[in-house]
Amino acid sequence: MDKDNIYQDYADFIFRYLLTLTNDEHAAEELTQETFYQAIKSIDNFHDNGKAKFSTWLCAIAKNVWLQEVNRTKKKHQLVNSLSDESTLFYNLEEEYFRNEDKINFFKKAHQLSETKREILYLRLLGDLSFKEIGSIFGETENWARVTFYRAKQQIRKDDTSYEP
């Protein structure tokens, strides 16, 4: 086998074979180069004993080179997806931290309210009770519970702005 003419004799054939596998001219060109690099490295392993044609041997190398590239691309995508999942996880943890900070600040402010306003706030927000139910607990009207809840919210908002420089 004349090593000097291998590329000239088979490059077009291997390129077309790889083009059918990849449907991408640029990728087929790159893989053709890699195929011939691998073939030259292992040309001593090819035995022309009449069982296999040289072109078949080159196609086997080309197919292996292509499969390696497919696996490399697949692993790259998995890594990118994994890193993207980690950044999403980090973002969710960061978001959760700020939500918890907001909760702590809310409860600190709620603690400053009168006992009645604080209890109405908790019953409405945490107990998910209606204003009618809250009013009946206190022996008051639904409207009283609504107004008291509104005033508690306003006081918390007012306290919120008092912390600004």
TrEMBL record:
Transmembrane segments: none annotated. Residues 112-155 form the RNA polymerase sigma factor 70 region 4 type domain. Pfam families: Sigma70_r2 (PF04542), Sigma70_r4_2 (PF08281). Keywords: DNA-binding, Sigma factor, Transcription, Transcription regulation. Coiled coil: none annotated. Residues 6-74 form the RNA polymerase sigma-70 region domain. Belongs to the sigma-70 factor family. ECF subfamily. NCBIfam families: sigma70-ECF. This is ECF subfamily RNA polymerase sigma-24 factor.
